[in-house]
Amino acid sequence: MQPIFSKVIAPLLDALPDAILLVDERGQIMFANLAVRDLLGYEPPGLVGQQVSMLVPAHSRAPHQRLMAAFWQEPRRRAMTTRPFLHALSRAGEEVPVTISLAPIVLSGTRCCVAALRDASPMQDRITSTSGGIGL
Q: Residue 74 pLDDT > 60, yes or no?
């Protein structure tokens, strides 16, 4: 990464409450901010170089690969809202409900995607408690 990224951009991203991943077109994680630790239990440097699919529950990996390919066919900012909640896989192997927003960006000639993951547990708990205990 360029010096401006490590000196300016990374600290800004680390200040955010949402987990932020920078993923290249091949699905390789290029950056993870500090909030990834709170949300999923991973140390950010340990995710760099890994495939983003490691954060996708096994039963969702095939659809994720198709959605990733479709994203790169028409890269644009979008919130993934086809379902109320998606799930990310924590370091402990637990599925964590999340909302995800995506944005394409080109850095040093490399097409990348910025993914913002927000913990959806509070929303899921609220929906479950107001729906008579029937979860989504």
A: yes
DSSP 3-55: HHIIIIIHHHHHTSSSEEEEEETTSBEEEE-THHHHHH---HHHHTTSBGGGG
**Mean pLDDT value of segment 42-63:** 96
10 pLDDT above the threshold of 60: yes
- pTM value is 0.86
Alpha-carbon torsion (74, 21, 15, 124), positive or negative: positive
CATH number corresponding to 3-130: 3.30.450.20
Which pLDDT score is estimated for 136?
Answer: 37
Report the C-alpha gap between 116 and 108 in whole angstroms.
Answer: 21
Q: What is the CA radius of gyration of the chain?
A: 15
* For the chain, domain boundaries: 3-130
Task: Give 108's contacts (C-beta < 8 A, 6+ positions apart).
Answer: 2
The closest alpha carbon to 38, from 103, 95, 118, 101, belongs to 118
Asked whether residue 81 carries a pLDDT value surpassing 90, the answer given is no
